[in-house]
Amino acid sequence: MSFVDHLELLRWHIIRAAASIVVFGLVAFFSKDFIFHDIILAPSRPDFWSYRMWCKLGELVNAPEICIDKINFTLQSREMSSQFTTHMSVSFTIGLILAFPYAFWELWRFIKPGLYPRERKNSRGAVFFVSVLFIIGLLFGYYGAAPLSINFLASYQVDASIANEFDLNSYISTLTTMVFSCALMFELPMVIYFLAKAGLISSEFLSVFRRHAIVVILIISAVVTPPDVLSMSLFAIPLYLLYEASIIIAKTVRKRDIDRLNKNLTRNEA
């Protein structure tokens, strides 16, 4: 295929991916009550699932202070067009999330024909694992990291006379930042897998720089989450576990490559 033909093929893959985002975005747009009341605004109410689980955990370990039974803030919209533009942007975001597996599959369909047979074999299941890790990261961010961040920021006051009345866009920005940060964070094993397959990184390299990685993880956690120990820990611990899992993945990839090379050498000698 010529370069122009490749561009034409890429254009149609992008069009189909964008169309899926638009379709899911329209579904989200016309499901306004469910999207906002049951999903977007759910972490702003004390009956949210995560808060109820914290209360049950507090009863179980006899630590009632960890129960979150009150969210000390109110939401407001201070611009005339704010609610409409927020509705549009949230619908697009929801469409992007729901269409992510299909959009990534379209991109992968364009990339895959350019790979060597061995590279295709090594990348088998890439769409599935990338999508699964993305969804797990979203769920972790939505039910784990985001509620704790929202509760901390909502309950923090420099003086009792100052009421927490947050703008709707500020609340949604905090929620989406936490959720998408976790979604991208959970893609680390797949990134390490492909880098290891390409020979650009090894388990030895990751092990040597483990201490540096811990420092980077703590810095990222401090930037992304509120400055309280619980929120930072909830974000940093899974990220560190993913780093350790990445070391195991890189080691496994290296071992398989060595075994394959030894088999080829044995076959050639025979």
Task: Summarize the topology.
Elements: H1 3-29, H2 32-40, H3 49-60, E1 74-76, H4 82-111, H5 117-122, H6 126-155, E2 165-167, H7 168-185, H8 188-197, H9 203-208, H10 210-224, H11 229-269
Parallel strand pairs: 1-2
Walkthrough of the structure:
The two termini are 40 Å apart. It contains 11 helices and 2 strands. Helix 4 (82-111) packs antiparallel against helix 6. The chain is mainly alpha-helical and 270 residues long. The chain has helices at residues 3-29, 32-40, 49-60, 82-111, 117-122, 126-155, 168-185, 188-197, 203-208, 210-224, 229-269; strands spanning 74-76, 165-167. A two-stranded parallel ribbon has the order 1-2. It has 2 domains: 1-180, no CATH class; 187-270, no CATH class. Forms a complex with TatA. Keywords: Cell membrane, Membrane, Protein transport, Translocation, Transmembrane, Transmembrane helix, Transport. This is Sec-independent protein translocase protein TatC. Its main location: membrane. InterPro entries: TatC.
Order of helices and strands: HHHEHHHEHHHHH
Q: Sheet with the most strands?
A: 2 strands, parallel
Helix content: over 70%
Measured between the Cα atoms of the first and last residue, the distance is 40 Å
Structural classification: mainly alpha
Measured by DSSP, the beta-strand proportion falls in under 5%
Strand order, sheet with most strands:
1-2
Mean pLDDT: 85
How would the global form be characterised? flat
**Number of continuous helical runs:** 11
Poorly predicted sequence stretches spanning 5 or more consecutive residues? none
Query: Could you say how many structural domains there are in total?
Result: 2
CA-atom Rg in angstroms:
23 Å
Total strand count, please?
2
Family: Belongs to the TatC family.
Function: Part of the twin-arginine translocation (Tat) system that transports large folded proteins containing a characteristic twin-arginine motif in their signal peptide across membranes.
Subcellular location: Cell membrane; Membrane
Membrane topology: Multi-pass membrane protein
